[in-house]
Prior knowledge:
The structure holds two protein chains of two kinds.
Chain A lengths: L4 H16 L8 H6 L20 H30 L5 H11 L12 H17 L8 E5 L6 E4 L3 E5 H4 L5 H16 L2 H23 L2 H12 L7 H19 L6 H13 L6 H4 L4 H14 L15 H4 L13
Parallel strand pairs in A: 1-3
Antiparallel strand pairs in A: 2-3
Helix pairs in contact in A: 3-8, 5-7, 5-10, 7-10, 8-9, 11-13
Chain B lengths: L1 H34 L18 E12 L2 H13 L4 H25 L3 E14 L5 E14 L6
Antiparallel strand pairs in B: 1-3, 2-3
Helix pairs in contact in B: 1-2, 1-3
Amino acid sequence: xxxxxxxxxxxxxLYIKHLSRPRYGLTDFSRLNNHRMKYSNPExxxxxxxxxxxxxxxxxxxxxxxxxxxLAVVMVLTLLADRLxxxxxxxxxxxxxxxxTEGLPVEEVKSLPIEAYLNRLADKIVAEQKLPPxxxxxxxxxxxxxxxxxxxxxxxxxxxxxxxxKLPHENAVAMVLAHEIAHIKHRHPIRSMGxxxxxxxxxxxxxxxxxxxxxxxxxxxxxxxTVLKFSRDQEWxxxxxxLHALYQLYGHVDGADRLFKVxxxxxxxxxxxxxxxxxxxxLSKRRIDNIHAFQVxxxxxADATVVALPEQFSTWLIPAAGGQAEGMP
Amino acid sequence: xxxxxxxxxxxxxxYGFGRYAELKHYRSIIQREKELRDIPAVATKxxxxxxxxxxxxxxxxxxxxxxxxKRFVAGLRNLIGGRVTAYESLLDRARREAILRMKEEARxxxxxxxxxxxxxxxxxxxxxxxxxxxxxxxxYGTVLIKPRKIS
Lengths: 329, 151
């Protein structure tokens, strides 16, 4: 600061002024200097340069205020994403899906007899559910013990051996397919993805502002829990649509509850790890009650007999060619 | 979940130790300010010119680290702006400690009064993403030492 020539000059002139003319400003400092000027460092009053507020109070206000506001904004954005995702054309979703399903065995679709059968059944349900044109359903068979089935982006359904083994007749299989197809019909996968993306984005922004590695990890973990899962409302919606489709296809919904009984058993036994997918579903008991309520409102128009599975169904479940569709995560 | 527990534990640890250190430091600062009050340190550049005195450069410097709790609170404060009180007390302590160390040096020299004191501040360690890690404050000035014969 004081290294430039001009400021040196300034210092010098002040010094001279100080020596020659005692008066500058209102106070005669030089006279005080020459006589009995008192220099002192009195006690510093606390709480001027610092805050007397308790740090925990500030912490509580900040955490409450900032995180509350961030949460509110994220909730509004997620809601918007959920509502607007419906307007994404299905073709775009299919292009997205080609990236998401990259690691999954998509190539051998319909080459296995079980997949051909499931796809034929799915086509019938698609016709009943009146899917918009261009919305394509592809069923994949997964040779795995997991009692599971799920629908994902681009109209891809995944049916696991563990679940199919436990289903006694075609109506129950049709219920699973109809439920998953209904998810696709209502665009649930892309809506969940929209929610997940907004959440991830918001988390990224907040944590980068905080600049804290640990906060980053905590938030990312909490965010991950919400990604690509269907809400309970969405499950109810899919159940309702599925039951209507079944009613139109078979004239009754007998046997549809069989699926949830199987799920309930699998959960109760504990012999099978409950897939995370099902843990967000409404309780199987309540869904069975829902089916029975539907039956009351929709009396059977045809013989309430269930359609048997094809004879070779159980052999289809074990792909003859070794190595096919194996090693699923 | 385990991350959340680790995070909360770190916050509690940062708060506990940080608060304890700060309160202890303030007690020490106030005590030592009392003891060293007889060596005034003033910012004026113009000492009285009446007597012949010896002069010497004295300095005091201190480095204080930010604790986890303060850093988190300051991070939240970054979002909405306002007084970063978490860092205010940190810098206040550093400033006063630096001046005290300078005075201690002056006392070792047998000095009586420090003129033209200046303070420099720098963050000596930038944490991840340029977060403040530790702060250094240095105080320096010119101490006037009265020759023994005259005084």
